[in-house]
């Protein structure tokens, strides 16, 4: 303690030398000397005033004891934040005093340098970091590198605070004292951008023959309200690419079938946006007739048999659904092949997934069925009855990230195809939903979660239906649903498509 | 949140002293500032730096890009590649999240190994341990004429070599590593699949030779 005090009260030799030379310089310049008590600080050049102020702060009494006239008055203090005192002290101290090269050298040799890393800041978020350097005190910020950060003048500790407005790497400079030596600190600061700001949106090329709008919304009404929406993901928007997903909903008033289809064109396939479109359009066009021929005439009897747990009812129902749903998907695969041939391409260039769902009113309750190739998924659930039926197979390929695509080769084996046919019979329901993986990956990250009714209920109650009012009377449904499709989920920026069927 | 873990395993032996080590420093700095401008990488990539000379140490534990800070990189003495491989395995097992029924774990870690010489320790033993770790693509880089690419080729199929260990070539390597991380983080976002082949990465620039 006392060592420290005495060390502080004695001027280091280089400073003392500079001080002496300064007084000499002042005398030579005709400034009345301190001894004569004639000059106040007000008459001195501002740089010199800062030197005096600085020395006074650092070594209280170092010169005041011998010269009371040079006592600094409060009003003469340079305002600290706007006018960094340290820069002004050292440089002019040397210049103004015209110190000999010898003395100048002595000064600069005494400066120690140190480089530190500051905790990363985030753009537009309040930043605060305590700079604690062993044995260093009286830190002052001499260059904020335009980050807008400043040392908190209210605190004894050096606390760097502020609200950074620009992202990037910055080098701030500080000065302080380590023992009796000035110390320069270079402080590296990274200001991290907001990831959201990096997702720019570029328009897709409207001149492209397979161009389609970046977002679509469809709404048809029958006994159910059928809503479809599809939106280009941030990943595609960033690069001005197309929406690869597609959606379609329809109601066949005559037969009472409600139909929905969603498709996700493969990112790696050049014309997949067209593939998904053909798949959906083909199903919407041809499925009603197939359902009417193969399912409608037998539905009541087969459902009754199924409900009474007749042993072969499920297989027979699936057999009829195969002729409608799987056959319609096969038609779609053929349509894709024809389109590919017409453009002198392989069908692989038009690869897409496909999820098809249908719903029809029964005498008592509802019948649902679905067929899918590839990822994405479908389910029907009843919030009141707390029950869920998933209507799709977890359909990743053999290796993670692989998926199946709608190609004719997927339809060789009846058993394999029949495994993708699902149906459900329910007295009532809240909603039937079909989604592409742009939504399932974010909302149902694992197969286990996709099969959990709690996850679905939370998804509906706290998320989707919270943001979107699925009612025929809602005039804002389109805006609400398209806005919901922009939900933020790090690492999930694919196209997003869903179809929702509600009573 | 599924992270894409990236392990940079860097040789800081005595031979790296001077220009090469300075190039590595700048390379790491450039890598992180570049990746922070890439939304895929900024959201998904997590970075760790393992340095090895007389011994191996993890200079930065696996850290999301947002919080990552470049370590102090100083050149030391010998080339303990074996110890580095062993440590990398330990770190991967400790830091990379595994998939559970309720949550997908991290993506398989990308490992970039860079060395400019011959290993001075029992690297085969280290390699045996390293092989137990579940890694994604492992890329080894022999920097300069003294690097032992035969050893590297034993570690991984994906080996590149730099003719010289000067600042522009090492800089080009880090630029390529950065582009590879960008590509991989975009791939996991869009296809939900790891990168497993070097040809899924951007083609290396002319200064970087693929060792076949």
In words, what does this structure look like?
Chain A is an alpha+beta fold and 503 residues long. Chain A has 3 domains: 2-109, no CATH class; 112-197, Immunoglobulin-like, CATH 2.60.40; 199-502, PPM-type phosphatase domain (Phosphatase 2c, domain 1, 4-Layer Sandwich). Helices cover 34% and strands 25% of the residues of chain A. Chain A has helices spanning 2-9, 13-28, 46-58, 85-97, 101-109, 195-198, 234-238, 272-294, 296-307, 313-342, 414-418, 437-443, 447-450, 453-467, 477-484; strands spanning 112-117, 121-122, 127-130, 136-143, 150-151, 159-162, 168-178, 181-192, 215-221, 225-231, 245-252, 257-264, 354-362, 365-373, 377-382, 387-390, 421-426, 431-435, 496-502. In chain A, α9 crosses α10. Chain A is elongated and about 115 Å long. Chain A starts with a helix and ends with a strand. Chain B has 212 residues and is α/β, with parallel strands linked by helices. Chain B has a single domain, classed as 3-Layer(aba) Sandwich (Rossmann fold). Chain B is built from 6 helices and 7 strands. Chain B has helices at residues 19-35, 39-44, 81-95, 123-130, 149-155, 167-191; strands spanning 4-11, 45-52, 56-64, 110-115, 138-143, 158-162, 208-211. In chain B, strands 3-2-1-4-5-6-7 form a 7-stranded mixed beta sheet, sandwiched between helices. In chain B, α1 packs parallel to α6 (167-191). The model of chain B has no long low-confidence stretch (mean pLDDT 92). Chain A binds chain B through residues 117, 119-120, 122, 167-169, 190, 192-193, 195, 198-199, 234-235, 238, 267-268, 399-402, 437, 441, 445-446, 448-449, 490-494, and chain B through 1-2, 29, 32-33, 36-40, 42-44, 66-70, 99, 101-104, 186, 188-194.
Shape of chain A: elongated
CATH class of the largest domain in chain A: Alpha Beta
Protein chain pair with the most extensive contact, residues per chain: A-B, 33 and 31 residues
For the largest beta-sheet of chain A, the strand count, sense and barrel status come to: 6 strands, antiparallel
Nearest-integer average pLDDT of chain A:
82
CATH architecture of the largest domain in chain A: 4-Layer Sandwich
CATH homologous group name of the largest domain in chain A? PPM-type phosphatase domain
Q: Quick one: how many beta strands of chain B?
A: 7
Look at the helices and sheets of chain B and give the structural class.
alpha/beta
What class, by secondary structure content of chain A?
alpha+beta
Q: List the total number of helices of chain B.
A: 6
CATH fold-level assignment of chain B: Rossmann fold
